[in-house]
Amino acid sequence: MKKIELTEGITQEMINAEKAKLPEGVTREMINAAKVKGLDVKLAEVPVDDEGTTRTFLVCVPSRTVLGQFRRFMDADPKKADEILVKNCLLSHKEEVLADDELFTGVMSTLSELIVIRKGTIKNV
């Protein structure tokens, strides 16, 4: 393994801290608070324009309760279903996303990827 020489005054801790930087609007405290509640926390990168610019948001995987509420309104009132998912699973920048239709749609699309449905198989016995 090749040893990397550090420039004088730069420590390995400084490099590690730089790598561990969180996106704007996301704090270590937010992440820790969500984890204490038992949430599966993720960073979601969402496109914000056609040029490839993205924003990173703190989200959590929807719980069974949230999924139940989401499914309840999915067919009857899709707008309400989307808001349930975003309001319960978006942990950062919530007001900004709720106020911007394009951001809301992008976050909603990204959150829907967190809903994992595994398909089983049925076999005759």
TrEMBL record:
It comes from the Bacteria. This is Uncharacterized protein. It comes from Flavobacterium shii.
